[in-house]
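Thread: quick sanity check before group meeting

JM: Hey all, I'm pulling together slides for Thursday and realized we never actually wrote out the predicted structure for the chain we discussed last week. Dropping the sequence here so it's in one place. If anyone has concerns about the input, flag it before I start.
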Amino acid sequence: MPNSSDYRQSANFFRSRLNTIAARTRVGKSRIHIDSGGNHTRRQPSRSMEEKLRNYGERRYHSVARILALFEIVRKTERLSAPVLVESKGAVWQAYVDRSGGVDNACHTCPCHLQLDGKLPTMIAGNRGLRRHLVLEFADCVSLPRSVNNIDSIVDEIAGRQAFVRAASLVLNQPDTGWAEGLDLFREDMRELLGDMVETITRPPGPEYRASSELNQERLDVLLAYYEGIFLTSTASIRMGHFIGQVEAEMRVP
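JM (edit): ok, ran it. Output follows.
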């Protein structure tokens, strides 16, 4: 099972855990954690803050690409209503419980969780392997400082959620549209919705520009990471082809 080593779990245990999570049709007030007991804390490489921010921007972009690829498979393999109603919702699944004592947050790499026709995405997918991958991708997180997570939430409120919903709707409802076209729409919607913010963060006044405070500089760095991750990252077709191949192989596993 792909990703099982990331959670330090055996493939069989990992599949069983994901199957249990995916079988739930209703969600309570608490998030559902893949790493529920803290015994299998997901490994996060130690990086400088600059590296973490660049990595987070890239992971956001590729997270959207992978989810759109899963939705393309859902559209091709399931009998969906026409059209599918896509809505943004708060997080349901989370990769792990952050153990930093409040210093860091487990930041989701996708802009928001989605409901399809009022249901969790796993409820419209009949294949168990596909459902496992849907849980994995929507749960994916990276640990970042709480202040960064707060800014992340603001940007998603301004642009990320709306752009993600539009991209998912396009892929799910247009038979001739693939994940790549949905990703292009997501990126352009983000650019339009963020508006002057992109101009501000990419053209600061002078090469030696520093923000008026450490906190404001951190905010600027985070927004620049978003810009780099969303607008400058290229999606390698080989990388996505490998991911889709993994999903198709997992769909053959009960």
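AS: nice. The longest strand covers residues 104-108. The chain has a mean pLDDT of 82.
JM: adding both to the slides.
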